[in-house]
């Protein structure tokens, strides 16, 4: 029974919206940005340029126009706008799904978890309400632990 529960836990889609992209393009189904070392370097450069993952109804903001205009950034936009959870309740659901996992995350889920961590840290910086700030901080710490746990050697 416990083994069946563990197997089912592994099969739960951590980011179900990745399989139902709003834009309707089949090529954007289950999108992934990081496919090479160059993509990793590009993401780091985009983050350093001040990328902001906006709320639910706003686009991704990349202040550097040259970086923002790159064709490969389109998938990053889709991930940040359509796949990542933006509501605190959705991010906490993600944390509940991450907690019992005993296998490493897929590279797609790892990428999305790191981007969710980035979004959560950006939201935390904007919140003034102390109670909300504590909830977002707790979520940020849990996400950081999940990423750290996933990086540990098996």
Q: Point out poorly predicted stretches.
A: 1-11
Shape: globular
Question: What gap, in angstroms, lies between the N and C termini?
Answer: 24 Å
Beta-strand percent range: under 5%
Give the total of beta strands: 0
Structural class: mainly alpha
Roughly what percent helix?
55-70%
Q: Largest sheet, described in full?
A: none
H/E element order: HHHHHHH
Radius of gyration: 16 Å
Number of helices: 7
Mean pLDDT comes to 83
Oligomer: single chain
Counting structural domains, the number is 2
Tell me about this structure:
Keywords: Signal. It comes from Xenotaenia resolanae. Residues 1-20 form the signal peptide. This is Protein FAM180A. InterPro entries: FAM180. The chain has 154 residues and is mainly alpha-helical. The protein has 2 domains: 33-83, no CATH class; 87-154, no CATH class. It contains 7 helices and no strands. The chain has helices at 2-11, 37-48, 65-68, 73-83, 88-98, 107-126, 130-151. Helix 5 packs parallel to helix 7 (130-151) and helix 6 (107-126) runs antiparallel to helix 7 (130-151). The radius of gyration is 16 Å and the shape is globular. Mean pLDDT is 83; it is low at 1-11.
């Amino acid at each position: 029974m416990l083994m069946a529960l563990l197997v089912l836990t592994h099969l739960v889609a951590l980011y179900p919206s990745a399989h139902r992209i709003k834009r309707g393009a089949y090529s954007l189904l289950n999108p992934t940005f990081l496919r090479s070392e160059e993509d990793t370097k590009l993401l780091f450069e985009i983050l350093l340029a001040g990328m902001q993952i906006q709320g639910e109804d706003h686009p991704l903001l990349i202040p550097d126009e040259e970086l923002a205009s790159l064709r490969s950034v389109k998938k990053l936009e889709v991930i940040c706008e359509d796949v990542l959870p933006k509501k605190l309740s959705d991010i906490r659901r993600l944390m509940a799904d991450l907690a019992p996992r005993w296998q490493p995350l897929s590279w797609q889920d790892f990428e999305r978890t790191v981007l969710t961590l980035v979004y959560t840290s950006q939201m935390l910086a904007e919140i003034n309400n102390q109670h909300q700030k504590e909830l977002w901080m707790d979520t940020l710490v849990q996400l950081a632990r999940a990423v750290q746990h996933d990086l540990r050697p098996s």
